C-alpha cells in the first residue's frame, strides 16, 4: 500500500498485510529518520550561528554540533518517538479494543505513519531556506580537551605580566566567561542587538585554563588570564553556561519554525495513532480520543524537541 493512501484513508489500516509490506514500511521509516537528520544538519550548520564574544571587536564563531553527532541524535530521537507511539498505541489497543491485530501488521502501519515526519521535514526545510541565520552569543562556556588556534594570552606570574603568542594552545579544561560589574554572569535569555553590545562593552572576560600547553612555552598547571584572543577553537566537549539569543533579528525565524514543527508532528501523529488503533483494534471513538490524548502527552514529555 502507498503510505500516502494510508494517511488519506486511515480505515485502510485494517487491510494492511504486514508479512508483505514490513520491508517497505521499514524503508519509509528509515527515509523519515534520514530526513530528520538532514534538516538538523542543515539548520545547525547553516542557519544557526554561535559566537564567543571576546570583546567589542573580537568575535569567534563556535561550532557546537558536528554532523556525526547531529546524525546520531536525530536517529535516536526518531527511534524513541517510534517506541513511544507504538508502545502507547499497542498497550491501549489491547486493553480497550474488541479485535486483535498482529504485531507485524500493527508495526507496519506505524512505520508508515512516519511518512508524516518526512513530509513535515520537507516543508520545514523549504521554509527555513529563505530565513536568515539565527545568531547566539556565548557569554559563558566550559570546554574540555580544547585547542585554540593563533592565540594571544596574558597572565600575571607573581608581579610580572606575561604575554605569549601561540599557533596552538591546548588545555585540558577551559572556562571562558564574561562577568558583569557586580561579579555575576550574564543571564541566559533573549536580548536586542543593542543590549548585547552594551553587555560586551560593560563586562569583563575571565578565562581560566587547566593543564595548558603551548610549545615551546612552559606554562603553569593552572592559570587565570588577564587578556585572551584567539582566531579558532576546537573543543572535544562543550558545556554552555551563559548564552544570549538575539531578539528581533530581521528575517530570522528558525526558532518559530522549530516550535511549529515540534507541535505539528506531535499532534498529527497522535491523531493518526488514535485513528489507527481504532481501526486495527476496533475501539470506540471515545477510546480513540483517549489514545490521542495519551500519545500526545507521552511524545510531548518524553521525546526531545527536534529542529
Number of domains: 2
| C-alpha termini separation | 30 Å
* SS elements, strand count: 9
Low-confidence stretches: none
Q: Rough shape?
A: elongated
Q: Mind describing the biggest β-sheet?
A: 9 strands, mixed
Structural class: alpha+beta
Strand content: 25-35%
Radius of gyration: 25 Å
Mind explaining what this structure looks like?
This protein is an alpha+beta fold and 307 residues long. It folds into two domains: 3-133 and 252-302, no CATH class; 138-246, no CATH class. Helix content is 48%, strand content 29%. It has eight helices and nine strands. Strands 1, 2, 3, 4, 5, 6, 7, 8 and 9 form a nine-stranded mixed β-sheet that branches. Helix 3 packs antiparallel against helix 8 (285-302) and helix 5 runs antiparallel to helix 7. The model has no long low-confidence stretch (mean pLDDT 89).
Short recap of the structure:
48% of the residues lie in helices and 29% in strands.
List keywords for this structure.
307 residues; 2 domains; 8 helices
List the helices and strands and how they pair.
Elements lengths: L2 H6 L9 H29 L1 E8 L2 E5 L4 H30 L6 H11 L1 H14 L5 E24 L2 E20 L9 E3 L1 H10 L1 E7 L11 E8 L2 E3 L2 E10 L7 H28 L3 H18 L5
